Amino acid sequence: MKVLGIEFEGSHMNYVLLESHQDSYVVQASNRLSLGDTRSRDSLVAFQHAVIVTLTSTAPDKIAIKAKPEKGNMRAGAAALKMEGIVLANAPCPSEFVSGARINKCAAADNSIYAYLQSALKTAAVVLKKEHP
Amino acid sequence: MPGLPEAIQEALESLEEHFLNLEANIRGGNGYLFFAQNKISNANVAIKFYAGESGDQQHDEPRKLAAIQSPNVLPIHEARNISDGWAYFITPRCDGGDLDDTIQSRPSMHEAIDIAIGICEGVGALHSQRMVHRDLKPANIVMHEGKPRIADFGSVRAIAIGEEDTHSSRHSVLYRPPESFVNDRYGFRGDIYQIGLVTYQLLGGWFSYDGIEYLKEKELRDLALIADPVDRSLFVDSVIEKRSRSGTLVRLGSLPPWAKRAKRAIRSMTNPNPSARPSTVADVVAALTKLRVESHDWQWAGTTARLTEGGRTLELQPCPGGNYQAYQTKGGARRRLGGSKAAKLEELVEEIER
């Protein structure tokens, strides 16, 4: 099973693709997409195409997204919410939101990927563990 | 059209029952291409006649095109056999010509990146089916409503599960990935090399289709001593191969100054060492989205460099001495940009972007 873990951070979409391997996992892909002007149609369309390429290329069985509040002081920014909408609208598979608390409890880590991708990796690992306990 | 095979002439006569304004297109490299309009739907279509030995692989091109569902891959309406050696398929006619026309029109920085991302979307659909295109170049990419569509599937090959590559294509020596000269093999990263070249062209990098322009003085002198046209052509191809393998086919210094942030991405995609290239098109689009965010949407307007942003238009106009002068138009009023003196284009671009 392949799970694509995603974290929206500022104007970036960080992603890590994990594939279950016996009782562990393997990092199959990782990178980050960037969104520029959140009120420019061209910019949003370009980001959407980039998301489609990423989803086609990684072909996940499930998408795990680090949940961010939509209200309150800790609410996600405009870029994160727009990027999240684009990913959900183009998802070729089921998706699941993972709370920050569950992600913080996850011990998964991989030194071969950048530090800014670790949270996306944990997000994927939480869902992978749930699907393959 | 003189010299047309008899089977195609008969097929065209038959097609005239259903289509108007049949017009030959001489730019197509493989087979024969015609444009026409459907008498009932008024749809503008392209009809491609292709040759092939009867057998399992004769209809590979339309079958592969039909198997790929992507807005960036040309869809197939209909395909028919007309003789043992000839068949045709019908696709929509794309209104924007091919990517060479777009490159000539000098797209803006963001337009160029968006087109490159669109090409990646089409190639990504191919790669997801474990197919490689092997002949990605501007002439094989058509534009429709501002979006690129990969059109020519004559070189597409499947890569078997567990394999990394297939035989390389003999098409277009200029676009051949360097590794294919060495081992005659072509993998997914070969397509990424070609996307890198096309992106470089879209961004305004120098790239000539005339092989002689890649020759240095000594090579030109050597060429002058060769009389046989075939030998001359082989000599030019060998120089292009040398440039390709040494990574000097692409002249990053020729990119306009606003595209300097693209150098790293282009260098990576066109690296002569395939393992140093991005491994997937997903990695290519990640680099392209970063580039899009970091870049301003400059564009050439004749000899003037123009940037429209935040309600104002900046123009860098050439002036005597090879320098440029910056002007700003805001609220209908045009004036020289405050404090700016005539300077080199790259200096002004850097100053404005800062």
Characteristics:
heterodimer, A: 133 residues, alpha/beta, Nucleotidyltransferase, domain 5, 4 helices, 5 strands, globular, B: 354 residues, alpha+beta, Phosphorylase Kinase, domain 1, Transferase(Phosphotransferase), domain 1, 3 domains, five-stranded antiparallel sheet
Please tell me about this protein's structure.
The complex is a heterodimer of chains A (133) and B (354). With 133 residues, chain A is α/β, with parallel strands linked by helices. Chain A is built from four helices and five strands, in the order E-E-E-H-E-H-E-H-H. Chain A has a single domain (2-131), classed as 2-Layer Sandwich (Nucleotidyltransferase, domain 5). Chain A has helices at residues 41-58, 78-90, 100-105, 118-131, and strands at 2-9, 12-21, 24-34, 62-66, 95-98. In chain A, a hairpin with a 2-residue loop joins strand 1 (2-9) and strand 2 (12-21). The longest helix of chain A is centred in the middle third of the chain and has 18 residues, at 41-58. Chain A is globular. Chain B has three domains: 6-92, Phosphorylase Kinase, domain 1; 99-207 and 250-294, Orthogonal Bundle (Transferase(Phosphotransferase), domain 1); 300-353. Chain B has eleven helices and 16 strands. In chain B, helix 4 packs antiparallel against helix 6. The model of chain B has no long low-confidence stretch (mean pLDDT 90). Classes of the chains: A alpha/beta (133), B alpha+beta (354).
SSE layout and pairing:
The complex is a heterodimer of chains A (133) and B (354).
Chain A: E1 2-9, E2 12-21, E3 24-34, H1 41-58, E4 62-66, H2 78-90, E5 95-98, H3 100-105, H4 118-131
Parallel strand pairs in A: 1-4, 4-5
Antiparallel strand pairs in A: 1-2, 2-3
Helix pairs in contact in A: 1-2
Chain B: H1 6-15, E1 19-25, E2 32-38, E3 44-51, H2 60-67, E4 78-81, E5 86-92, H3 99-104, H4 109-128, E6 131-132, E7 141-144, E8 147-150, E9 157-158, E10 165-167, H5 178-183, E11 185-187, H6 188-202, H7 217-224, H8 229-246, H9 262-269, H10 281-294, E12 299-301, E13 304-309, E14 312-319, E15 323-330, E16 333-336, H11 345-353
Antiparallel strand pairs in B: 1-2, 2-3, 3-5, 4-5, 6-9, 7-8, 10-11, 12-13, 13-14, 14-15, 15-16
